Amino acid sequence: MIKKTLTAAVLLFLISTDGFANIKKNVLILHSYHYGMNWADGLINGMKKVFVEAEARGFQLDVTYEFMDTKKFSTEDNLKLLYKIYKYKYKNNKFELIIAADDAALNFLLKYRNELFGKIPVVFTGINFFSDEIIKNNYGYTGVVEEADVPATIDIALKLHPATKKIVVVGDKTLTSVMDRKTVRKAMVKYPGIEFEFLEEADVYTYQRYLQGLHENTIILAMHVNTDNKGKYYSFEESFDIYSLNVKRPIYTFWDFYLNRGALGGMIVSGDAQGSEAAKKALLIIQGQPVDTIPVLKDSPNQYIFDYKVMKKFNIAIEDIPSSAIIINKPKSFKERYEENKEFVITVLFIIVFLSGVIFILTVNIIKRKKVEKTLVRTNTAYQRFVPSEFLYHLGKKDITKVELGDQVQRDMSVLFSDIRSFTTISEKMTPAETFNFINEYLGIISPIIRQYNGFIDKYIGDAIMAIFPVKPEDSVKTAIEMQKNLIDYNIFRKKDNRPPVRIGVGIHSGLLMLGTVGEAKRMEGTVISDTVNLSSRLEGLTKHFGANIIISDDVKSKMGEEAIKYNTRFLGKVKVKGKDMAIGINQVIDGNENSIIEKILKTRSMFEKGLNYYYNKNCNESIEKFSQVLKINSEDVAALYYVNTIKEYMDKGFPDGWVGVIDMHEK
Questions:
Q1: What's the rounded Cα separation, in Å, for the pair 184 and 287?
Q2: Is 388 helix (H, G, I), strand (E, B) or coil?
Q3: Is the N or the C terminus of the chain less surrounded, counting Cβ atoms within 10 Å?
């Protein structure tokens, strides 16, 4: 004990002085195993802690690491190869000291140190089953013994599990495990009432199945398992994770690398502690203390360590654990957490008080803001009644406040115009108030259909509607048909009130248009400007001339593609509308009429089309004959009657020069 105290005192003196500043010392750390193995890493961490503390006080070290990897390559041939490699690598290197980690490294140096490095001091650590005979005739060896305290671990295990009748010892057939079992067998005499069973066949999956079925009065001692019965190598952790899976009995151990993996604990050999003690001895030697004056630390620096999470699993109270024990994964008390984070807690409390004030102020502002937001929402909702949100979307504006005079965008869209026929006649019989009520009633029935089919209303022009369909032309045709169908139901309702029926015409054209804002700084509005708009308005006007409820241009039908065949249409001819030089083909959409009318038009459609064909070829008599056949079946076919009268006029006056069958419509 006195020697230990003196050694520690000398070490502290050396580290606390600057006498070794700027003195660079070369140290070789020779590991028996491989980098990444928890035990080897623990040794390295323990050494580094001591070295870092010394370097902070000016001490300089140049540390070289070598890993012999003897867990995987332990043959004599491998050791001879290592000898050749080290001899080549370090023939020009001079080390002040070597730290040998674990038995294989020590045995290697006992055999080859003098030839490879000369008689330089060696500090060993992690040495199992040490005896003075090992280093008796070799100068310059000291170190730290690794010795598992088997009785201490078994004693605490039996204290915590007093009903135990059996202890199962898990190991393999490697030399280390064989020596471990000898240590356990030596301790067995202290426990005559306990049955000991040794697993050594090293089939980890067989172990797993066996351990899962253990009796409740059994505990497990986890020793070393590195090689199975087929020679396959496992790290300590890999084998433990396999055979301990879903085991319901407590597992005790002697090594720290099984902790945090399901082992409950025990009197633990710590790699960190072993490495730390070895590094302390190394510093003493480097500072000039003769190695033969530094005794081997045979009392392995072990300590009780337990895993709190596993303790809870087996209902073990902290009070039952030795007071000197380290308990990992233990939740800290409120006081401990407070003491550790006192400054942080005070800072947080100050911030909380400060933020509480800020929150109060913000809350007041939020309440005010919400009131304003509600007003804005109501305002925006009201604005959307006048400026459709779709209009803003196509202009790339999020809200109406971002719209400026002259904003515009070009798009390919379909335009639908609808208008009530003979509206003046209907309105003359109503008061102004009744007229407004009628228009709003009618628009309330028709307008929602436009939104239903992806359209939006650009403007109301009295009883007329101009709607835009940005997605596909078919949407506009569906809308027109539904408008006519809803009008049939609406007229049944009007008839019950002795009110006259309402008829509307719908014209649809598709093409490029400019969507934007017009007006001046104090008054602007969104609108759509293009020939497409004008032409759709003219097509709505043609519905009266041809007695058709819905007329669409050839462009609309063409852009519908294969979808067009889903709808019943009839080609009405080629017309040149007022204000246009180019003739366009127009088509009557038959769907949306009353069923009796649809049947008549469909029945006479082929006759009508033959009549048109004769008309374009100036075969007047044949054309009149076909259109007359149409009128016999459907006397209300205005288009057929129109062509009969037109052909008769040509027969009387003759065809104009350059006539190609295009009808000039001089009226809207």
A1: 40
A2: coil
A3: N
**Which residue reads 């055999």 in tokens?**
111
What burial class does residue 335 get, using C-beta atoms within 10 Å of its C-beta: 0-12 exposed, 13-18 middle, 19+ buried? exposed
| Pairing label, strands 24-31, 60-67 | parallel
Here the tokens at position 243 are 């055979």
Tokens representing residue 145 in the block: 């013994």
Q: How far apart are CA 636 and CA 579, in angstroms?
A: 30
Amino acid, res. 551: I
Residue 309 burial (10 A CB sphere; 0-12, 13-18, 19+): middle
Whole-prediction pTM value?
0.46
Confidence of residue 232 (pLDDT cuts 50, 70, 90): confident
Q: Which amino acid, one-letter code, is at 342?
A: K
Give 320's contacts (C-beta < 8 A, 6+ positions apart): 159, 160
Cα distance between residue 279 and residue 98, in whole Å: 10
**CA–CA dist 401, 143 (Å, integer):** 83
At what angle are helices 620-633 and 638-653 packed, to 10 degrees? Answer: 150
By residue count, the chain amounts to 668
**pLDDT digits 0-9 by tens, 430-464:** 888 988 889 899 999 989 999 999 998 888 888 89
* Token pair listed for 105: 């490294």
Using a CB cutoff of 8 Å and minimum separation of 24, what contacts does 107-111 make? 108/30, 108/68, 108/79, 108/82, 108/83, 109/30, 110/134, 110/135, 110/138, 110/141
For residue 75, the model assigns a pLDDT of 87
CA 549/CA 540 separation, integer angstroms: 9
Look at residue 401 and tell me whether its pLDDT is greater than 70: no
**Which residue is associated with the tokens 């003046």?**
424
Strand pairing partners for 306? 265, 327
**Eight-class DSSP state of 635:** T
Give per-residue pLDDT as tens, 548-573: 999 999 999 999 999 899 999 999 99
**Cα–Cα distance measured from residue 450 to residue 135, given in angstroms and rounded to the nearest whole number:** 100
